[in-house]
Specification:
With 329 residues, this protein is mostly helical. It is built from eleven helices and two strands; from the N terminus they run αααβααβαααααα. The protein is globular, with a radius of gyration of 23 Å.
Length: 329
């Protein structure tokens, strides 16, 4: 009888069908891509917020401290080479793209030196304004991300009782983002230290350790990926939402991990297509529109998958519960 019950269980929601539903939803509500579209246009045509002048002003002092501390000249030069190849190309406005809740943006991997409107304005931070810019841009990213997720969830799962309130969405976004950062630091820092120590001992063991981490990472990535969904779909707080996400991962890890991997591959792979036009050409508009549409559709698909998978899981539990009661009797 128990085997018959299990065989009669409905199939779980399909990965492709959920993603397709997300694309259909955004195609019929195209205004949902407005926030990522505006952010991408700002990253492309707007000013750049630089910090290389700040680092240049303290570089000589830092090098002097290293020299007096006995740091080898080769190591100092290696750090300076890294600085010269990295820091001048960083745009602090990238901080507007917050994780795990944030407005998707396209032009993060590259830094355009010219646009169809000419050379962009270059703003520089200094010692006094640098912390303020970091806090301001991060906060604006959280607010924009909360509004973006709220609007997409409202469109993707319209059959829910009601949409989460704007203020609650922003507050929960901030709490989820802070908690997620703490968790990643608490897990990531010890793992990095262990990896460094193993690398010093044996490169083969280091590769084996990385492989082990890759295999086990889905137990962390999948709950974090679906953490915000409980806030915007089920109106949960950030603690209840992570518990709900962990439960979803526990019972649906193979399917849910494949869904997360599919979303990542589609988003990351298509970025190469969107970046084909040169950034000083108006053809980049097509890449920006395509990126804004696809990432919003994938987000909508994830909300639909989360709703349907939770409904399926609840259905399974209810169908198996009578069997458990009979076995206990």
């Amino acid at each position: 009888m128990e085997v018959s019950k299990i065989e009669n269980l409905p199939p779980p929601p399909g990965i492709i069908s959920s993603i397709k539903a997300g694309f259909d939803t955004i195609a019929s509500h195209i205004t949902a891509i407005l926030l990522p579209l505006l952010l991408n246009l700002f990253m492309w045509l707007g000013p750049r917020l630089k910090m290389n002048a700040l680092f240049d002003s303290i570089k000589n002092e830092v090098v002097g401290i290293w020299q007096r501390g006995g740091v080898p000249a080769e190591d100092i030069q290696r750090v300076l080479n890294f600085y010269e190849g990295t820091i001048p190309h960083i745009n602090l406005f990238w901080l507007l793209r917050t994780l795990p809740i944030g407005i998707s943006s396209l032009l993060l991997p590259r830094e355009a030196v010219s646009t169809p409107l000419g050379n962009p304005a270059m703003w520089q931070v200094n010692t006094l304004t640098f912390p303020g810019w970091i806090l301001l841009l991060t906060f604006l990213g959280w607010v924009g991300g909360g509004l973006y997720f709220r609007s997409v969830a409202w469109i993707a799962v319209p059959n829910e009782e009601s949409v989460v309130q704007t203020f609650r969405a922003i507050v929960q976004t901030i709490l989820v983002s802070i908690a997620c950062g703490i968790i990643l630091m608490a897990i990531g820092m010890p793992l990095i230290l262990v990896l460094v120590l193993i690398t010093q001992l044996n490169s083969f063991l280091a590769n084996l350790f990385v492989l082990f981490l890759s295999l086990g990472s889905m137990w962390i990535i999948v709950p974090l990926f679906f953490w915000p969904h409980g806030v915007f779909v089920k109106k949960q707080n950030f603690i209840t939402s992570i518990l709900s996400s962990i439960q979803l991962t526990r019972f649906t890890l193979p399917t849910s991990s494949m869904f997360v991997l599919t979303v990542f591959l589609l988003s990351f792979g298509l970025n190469f297509l969107w970046n084909i036009p040169p950034e000083d050409s108006w053809m980049t508009l097509f890449g920006i529109f395509g990126h804004s549409f696809v990432t919003t559709a994938l987000l909508a698909g994830s909300f639909i998958y989360y709703r349907d998978m939770n409904a399926w899981l609840q259905n399974v539990i209810e169908k198996l519960r009578p069997n458990q009661a009979v076995k206990q009797a």
